[in-house]
Amino acid sequence: MGFLRHTVGISRADLTRDCLQQIRLWPGCESVEEIAILAEPRSGFSVHVVKYGSAKKRLADRAIGYNPAREAAALSFEIGIK
Q1: What is the pLDDT at residue 33?
Q2: Average pLDDT in the chain
Q3: Which H helix or E strand runs over 63?
Q4: Structure confidence at residue 79 (pLDDT)
Q5: Would you say residue 26 has pLDDT above 50?
Q6: How distant, in Å, are the alpha carbons of 2, 40, 46 from that of 60?
Q7: Environment class of residue 18 by beta-carbon count within 10 Å: exposed (0-12), middle (13-18) or buried (19+)?
Q8: Other beta carbons less than 10 A from residue 73's beta carbon
Q9: What is the mean pLDDT of residues 26-43?
Q10: DSSP for residue 66
Q11: Distance CA 62, CA 26 (A)
């Protein structure tokens, strides 16, 4: 007998929107235009900047590593993408 998990899945579009909003909060990353969410085999995902706009590549890639939306969405993503 196990415990039921009461979590709600998140769509890829919502996850992308939330991560992009959080990245744009970083100083110097306001102009990041597009990110990609890639699913990983073990119920995870990774975020990559696709279009940097006028943001510096190094700064935008650093912002990806500290994205709190990505951390929070990891639990919801374990169920799968809608």
Answers
A1: 92
A2: 76
A3: helix 57-65
A4: 45
A5: yes
A6: 42, 21, 14
A7: middle
A8: 20
A9: 86
A10: T
A11: 10
